[in-house]
Design brief:
The chain has 113 residues and is mostly helical. It has helices at 12-21, 25-52, 59-68, 73-112; strands at residues 3-5, 8-10. The protein has one domain (28-112).
Length: 113
């Protein structure tokens, strides 16, 4: 996997090392504060990205309806748990993409100052 942020190209090894480095909770403290501050706006961006990507149409709606109609409580609980996990994965991927763009915007603004 190779990603691009601004003009810099990152190798899979560099991304893996960066992910390992930010696994330390202290390292994430400032980022968590920034995200908490920006949460309402980020939530709107996530919802917009999911809607524009068609996530809330068709298959997702049908799967939600199917899960809601499962009669057996244990089976329904399992299905709801799986649906929530899948929605979380999709949101995480969109969130990472938004994070890359936010980082690029912050870097571009810092260069202008």
């Amino acid at each position: 996997m190779v990603g691009v942020l601004g003009e810099r190209v990152y190798t899979a090894e560099e991304v893996d090392a960066a992910v390992a480095a930010i696994a330390d909770p202290e390292r994430l403290k400032h980022a968590q504060e920034v995200v908490t501050h920006a949460a309402p706006a980020l939530q709107r961006i996530l919802g917009q990205a999911l809607a524009e990507g068609g996530y809330f149409e068709g298959a997702q709606t049908a799967e939600t309806r199917r899960v809601a109609e499962i009669e057996d409580p244990e089976e329904r609980l399992t299905a709801v748990t799986l649906l929530a996990a899948e929605e979380s994965r999709v949101a995480m991927f969109v969130g990472v993409a938004v994070g890359f763009e936010l980082a690029r915007e912050l870097m571009d603004n810092a260069k202008e100052d």
